[in-house]
Amino acid sequence: MHLVLQAPGIRHDLIEQAAALVSANRITPLNACAMRLEEIDQSALAELQAWARSKHVDVAALEDIRPLHDMKVLAMDMDSTLINIECIDEIADMVGKKAEVSAITEAAMRGEITDFSESLRRRVALLKGVAETDLLRVYNERLQLNVGAEKLIRTMKAAGVHVMVVSGGFTFFTEKLRARLGLDSAHANVLEVNNGKLTGQVYGDIVDGNKKAAHLRSLALSLNATPEQCIAVGDGSNDLAMLSNAAYSVAYRAKPVLQQAAAFQINYAGLDAILNWFDSKDATQAAQAR
Q: What are the GO BP annotations of this UniProt entry (predicted)?
């Protein structure tokens, strides 16, 4: 087994401490923020993970280091995963309703509201009358990509991985990100607009947790991809079902319920930390050449 340790500007002395804890046979530097400990003593893994939490270091335990081009699917949530905000909360802020909407959002992401579709409809109803131009203001003024997102997507695409965003948010934002980042596919909810204002309704079926999982399964089937060739990344309870369909299930800055369920956690490094779990040298070079 190998361990990949990652943190912004990780110190060499921390790597040496970790290597000693697990009796690593070899230390392989990956970049300024990541090191790989190879052929470790697995009996010390729990102790190492507790140590890593105390030092704010992300740890990924891997049986082997697979070539990135062996992977076929990267499925990502949007709000608070690919991007830094919950779009619906910021839209609500435009009309002075952020506190009310955010309270429902937080409860839903923690898993305290089990019917995501109903919670979304309740929140969208509060947005009735919001101008469509306010959504554009949220995109232009508040939405930022999370650290490492562009590098992750660019390198995945260079490796031939299908990059999909599947969100319980809104197509107004996913379609802009699809064009901006060159995403291969995107799925989200459609806000109903009449005369330039939100009606407080959504079109069609709600993209909830089950629908997210269905989109991943459908894509994997179309690409003949096994769960071992799928990576899924999310932050809330609405991502649980999707992540259960990927061997590389990743909780990014996630709520406790998802942290516990996911195979991997990223709490300190950027999204591009995922690349260091694979042999991605060729894809990284190809991405840089673009």
A: L-serine biosynthetic process
Q: Is residue 151 part of a domain?
A: no
pLDDT in tens, 3-26: 999 999 888 889 999 999 999 999
Residue-wise pLDDT for 261-281, tens only, equals: 999 999 999 999 999 999 987
The pair of three-digit structure tokens given for residue 220, joined into one six-digit string: 């994997």
Please tell me the pTM assigned to this model. 0.93
- Between 145-149, 201-205, 244-248, the lowest mean confidence (pLDDT) is in 201-205
Q: Say if 177 falls within a structural domain.
A: no
Q: What is the CATH number of the domain that holds 55?
A: 3.30.70.260
**What is the set of active-site residues?**
77, 79
- Contact indicator for 183, 164 with CB cutoff of 8 Å: yes
Beta bridge partners of 38: 26
Does 197 reside within a domain? no
- Structure-block tokens of residue 72: 């076929």
Q: In what order do the strands lie in the sheet with 26-31?
A: 26-31, 34-38, 2-6, 58-62
Q: Which residue segment(s) compose the domain that 2 sits in?
A: 1-65
Domains of the chain: total: 1
